Each structure stands twice: as structure tokens, then as C-alpha cells.
Amino acid sequence: MNLKQFDWADWFETECSDLGRVADWVERYTKEFKPTLDSETWRTDYHNVFSKLPADVALTSTLLHEMLLTIQAEHPNSRQQRRFALAFERLGKFAGLEVNFSHLRGNYSASEVEPRDIPSDQLIAQSFCQIPDSGWRWVFGMVATFGLRSHEVFYLDTEELQQCGYMVAVKEGKTGQRLVWACYPEWVEAFDLRSPQFPQVTAKNHSDYTRRWCHYFQGRFSFTALDMRHAWAIRSLECNVPYALSAMQMGHSVTVHEKTYHRWIKRETHQRAFDAVMWREARPRPGQR
Q1: Which of 41, 141, 197, 280 has its CB surrounded by the most CB atoms within 10 Å?
Q2: Burial of 273 (0-12, 13-18, 19+ CB in 10 A)
Q3: Nearest 5°: phi and psi at 157?
Q4: Per 3-state DSSP, what percentage of the chain is helix, strand, and coil (rounded to 5)?
Q5: Is residue 147 left, alpha or beta, with left meaning phi > 0 and alpha meaning psi from -120 to 50?
Q6: Residues near 265 by Cβ (< 8 Å), separated by ≥ 6?
Q7: What GO biological process terms are annotated to this protein in UniProt (predicted)?
Q8: Whether residues 100 and 135 fall in one domain
Q9: Are 33 and 46 in contact (CB under 8 A)?
Q10: Residue 286 within any structural domain of the chain
Q11: Domain boundary, last residue among 104, 137, 160
């Protein structure tokens, strides 16, 4: 979004009280809510959004509405449109304005992203062996084995893993702290994950680490870190990990887990689940109820 083409101050009232300017309301909102969010969420969902507002004009519902119309025109039905609509509505309500921008959020949904080919376990294992750098090989193995987001691998407590366990603790990430168990546990030994080795990279935040990952692996394989995360979700289902536990370990709700990941489950996965349940000796038989 390029707001340098014109000055918003030319379009809205600049005469306002000290507490009526955009800058003042953003400052008050920041003091109130920034401490309740992790730094990356605040930066992405609020700071970057509010920085697009003209600082020295009055905060009005008209200003917020007109800027959202611009976002809608430039990025229709995108994550950016939804992010701006939510942040502007919350800021407006905080300032006492009567605003409702639900109609300007667009139709973006992570669950509506185009389906993709999930990498097989064999392909993931083969790809692991093709990574020349030991540090990047280790973080690749961790993402594959624990279903982590690419930046989360740099914010781990691996003490239990190093002491012959199969669990790691995410200390910081997109959705905060959580515990995650290996799936498959055999990959811990196969990928030599008990001895942490990080690539020689520096970063200031989650997004920086994600960019470092993308830069190194771009064009190297036919799948992404997110694809491996999808594979972990499906693998956990095949291993009979309960939905609720799997969702908790991935750092989201059961609803998100089902909508985002399980729609990529292939026919073969359903067939294996059917075979495992319906052909077991102990299941109920017709006429036994």
C-alpha cells in the first residue's frame, strides 16, 4: 500500500484536541494492549497497521473506513485486508467510535488456501539426507519431526530431548508456549536430533528467521516448511493421536486443526484408518448389541 501518493491530512479534519489525534489514540491503545501480546503479533497485526494511519489528523470513523476501502481495492480478500479491518475496528471502538468493519474484512481464510501435495514420509527422509549444511539439516529434521513453524525451531527448550526424551518445549512463537512430542519418535535417532546444531544465521524476530529459512531452502525441494507441518498433522491422525492433543501441540484450536489440515487427508489415509478399526478382532459384530 503506497500512501505517499497523497497526504491524508488534505482529506480529513486536522483540528482536534490533544486526545483526538490518531497518534494519541494509537499511543494509548499501545500502552493498554501491547503488554498482553507477544512482540511478533503486536508488530505484525497492530504496529505495522497503525503506522499506515496519518498521525496528526483526527481519528474518525470516516478516516478508518476510507483507508479500508483503499486496502480492499489494492488487496481484495487477502490476509492484509482482514488484518487491517480487525485492527482499525478495535482501535476505533477503543476510541469510542461507532464502527463495525465486518463487511470489509473480505473472505480470506487460511482454510481456503489451495490444496497442495503433502510430502510423503519417504520424501521428507530423503530430502533430509540431501541437505549439506549440518545446522540447516538439524532444523529441517526438527520441523519435520515435531510439526513446528519454521521460526519456532529457533526458540526451543530441548533439555528433555537431549536427555533421551521425545518432547521439546516451544518457548516463544506465533501462538506462545507449548509442549510438542515427536511423530515419529524413530526420526529423533534417524535424524540425530538429540544434538542441537543451528545454522549460522542472525535474526531479530520471528519473521526474520522465517525469511532465513525460505532463503536457504528456496528452490531446493518441491515442498515447504508449512507442507511438512501439514504432514505432521496427518501423521498424528494416522498414529491415533487425539484431535485435541494434536491441535494443542500444533498451537491452535481444534476447529482450526480440522478446517486447515484435515481437508488434505488423502483417500489412502482414510482407508488405513478404516482397516485398522474395522478389521480388528475386538470390534463389535452385527447382532452383538
Answers
A1: 141
A2: middle
A3: -105, 110
A4: 55, 5, 40
A5: left
A6: 234, 237
A7: DNA integration; DNA recombination
A8: no
A9: yes
A10: no
A11: 104
Indicate whether 99 and 195 sit together in one domain.
no
**Grid coordinates belonging to 255:** 476447529
What is the pLDDT tens value at each position of the chain, 289 positions in all?
454 454 544 544 433 434 589 999 999 999 999 988 877 788 888 999 999 999 999 999 999 999 998 888 888 878 888 899 999 999 999 999 999 999 988 876 655 544 556 889 999 999 999 999 999 999 999 999 999 999 999 999 999 999 999 999 999 877 778 999 999 999 999 999 999 999 999 888 888 898 899 889 888 998 889 889 889 988 888 887 887 888 899 888 878 777 776 666 667 777 877 888 788 888 787 865 5
The reply to whether 6 falls in a domain is no
User: In this structure, what C-alpha cell is assigned to residue 93?
Assistant: 471502538
In angstroms, rounded to a whole number, what is the distance separating the alpha carbons of residues 186 and 235?
A: 13
Split into its structural domains, the chain has a count of: 2
CA 170/CA 209 separation, integer angstroms: 15
Structural domain boundaries enclosing 226: 121-278
Whether 30 maps to a domain, the answer reads yes
Which positions ≥6 away from 207 have C-beta within 8 Å? 40, 44, 151
Would you tell me how many other CB atoms lie within 10 Å of the CB of residue 168? 27
The full length of the chain comes to 289
- 27 class by beta-carbon count within 10 Å (0-12 exposed, 13-18 middle, 19+ buried): middle
Query: Among 113, 117, 194, which residue's Cα sits nearest to residue 161?
Result: 194
Q: What CA–CA distance (Å, rounded) separates 10 from 7?
A: 6
Calpha distance 229→250 (Å, rounded): 8
Q: Give the count of beta carbons closer than 10 Å to the beta carbon of residue 216.
A: 16
As a whole number of angstroms, the distance between CA 258 and CA 225 comes to 19
* Residue 285: inside a domain: no
Q: Which among 104, 139, 163 is the end of a domain? A: 104
